[in-house]
Design brief:
The chain is mainly beta. It has one helix spanning 3-20; strands at 29-33, 54-57, 61-64, 67-76, 81-89, 92-105, 108-115, 120-126. The longest helix is centred in the N-terminal third of the chain and has 18 residues, at 3-20.
Length: 128
């Protein structure tokens, strides 16, 4: 009879790392490409579909108007985080490996993302 609780505990421990992957609160929210339509960048703008330049980040997912990603790995670093995502949209699927960092600049909260795959750096402002 002691085997059942031990087995249940083993499965709980194995499942814990998979469930632990989530974006910290600083990374969650709605973000708009810096310079794009700042007047519509208010909380809830994504759900109201006020701009296709807004990205919504929840605890485990990112969403844009025509695509979405599921968080697969988040590893904090001194400069931000290494982020791995599995994405899909418009009938396609792809993997994303990026560096993400949240910084306060001139009173604004910015999300800076960098991808080595296509040498891309993006700056998004938090909708507050």
């Amino acid at each position: 009879m002691k085997l059942i609780p031990a087995t249940a505990m083993m499965f709980a421990l194995l499942a814990a790392p998979a469930m632990a992957q989530q974006f910290p609160k600083d990374f969650q929210g709605e973000w708009i490409a810096d310079g794009d339509e700042p007047s519509v960048c208010k909380p809830g703008a994504f759900d109201r579909m006020e701009s296709d330049a807004i990205m919504k980040v929840t605890a485990r997912n990112t969403s844009q108007i025509e695509s979405g990603c599921q968080l697969k790995a988040f590893k904090g670093q001194t400069f931000g985080a290494s982020v791995r995502l599995a994405c899909s949209g418009e009938g396609n699927t792809w993997q994303v490996n990026e560096i993400w960092s949240v910084r306060k600049v001139a009173g604004r909260t910015l999300l800076i993302t960098a991808s080595a795959k296509d040498n891309r750096i993006s700056v998004l402002a938090k909708c507050e």
